[in-house]
Amino acid sequence: MVFGCASDAGQDVAPEAAQETAPDANRETAATSSDLNQLSWMVGYWSRIEDASSSEEAWLPARGGVMVGVHVDLFSSGRSFFEYLRVESRGDTLVFLASPRGRKAVPFVASEISEGDVVFSNMSHDYPQHIGYTLVGADSLRSEIWGSVDGEERRSSWTWGRSSIR
User: Residue 151 region, left (φ>0) first, then alpha (ψ -120 to 50), else beta?
Assistant: First the structure.
């Protein structure tokens, strides 16, 4: 899943000053389950091709209190983007950490968890403030990012099909 920050003016990067500690503001609304097995439906290799660009995301099964993922985009222009992803069990909740281009991780606390659906939130992040994943049928995974920038709501989504690693 691709996400940038509002302060990046269109670049897909996270601020160097991002905190890896889950923000206290999110603790009040955090979902109260730290069982990573609830997210087992995310495990697998997911891909899509659109307009000569490709997008891939892969998630490994939970091991030792963490699920590890990676996201890669290859654009028709020849540019590329990657980010390291992980979901950790911390205390009584789950925390999603995204490291765009390998930079310092930005934390998002699980705010909603149900079968085949999860939302992670960080209201102190410039953009996005929310990251969601939804299993669509047995073979599609949709991710969404949303929040506001300068008072204007923004939302983007991507849908991948289950694939085998090429």
Answer: left
